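Appendix B: complex inputs.
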Amino acid sequence: DADVTQTPRNRITKTGKRIMLECSQTKGHDRMYWYRQDPGLGLRLIYYSFDVKDINKGEISDGYSVSRQAQAKFSLSLESAIPNQTALYFCATSRGQSTDQPQHFGDGTRLSIL
Amino acid sequence: DQQVKQNSPSLSVQEGRISILNCDYTNSMFDYFLWYKKYPAEGPTFLISISSIKDKNEDGRFTVFLNKSAKHLSLQIVPSQPGDSAVYFCAASARGYNFNKFYFGSGTKLNVKP
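Resulting structure:
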């Protein structure tokens, strides 16, 4: 079983719809992240959370919101989807306490907005 | 403005030979660097890292070199194997008090030919 699970894996939807992408982890990590990947660009950070009471904006948070329902769950919402939010979305986790920790990624959600 | 750049979108190497993947960065505050490997339909997986106090870190067939004065790092794979065919991302961060935000390059697709 995957340590970091993203659902759905693929989603096609229409402009203006509300969409939620979900992420759950069994690694016991405190920190969770949402990234998006676009062709020709690296992964860009949307939001991150250090624990259930801590939510922080990343570099491209406009148009997105998140919810940390539990230590193991971190969901990303697009309130009113637009075509330029079509991308590959990744959830990641890492341990707290140290900044020398790599992030562990889920397998991604491919989102297409028509 | 991308702070981490991978200028070669793709690289093709014969099995058994050396693969050299390059990465440049612009922020002199970066002090922790990582390489991730990504197969299709999977999330990136951590491969190897290096701290700025070192100029080389080795793990089996994988070696990362850091040239701080040139703001350049490279990943060498020796010998290359067909299973190494994947997209490789470099990432960099400036370790702050509590959080290391990672900046990712756009990736280099490595093809190792049998």
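The longest strand of chain A covers residues 43-51.
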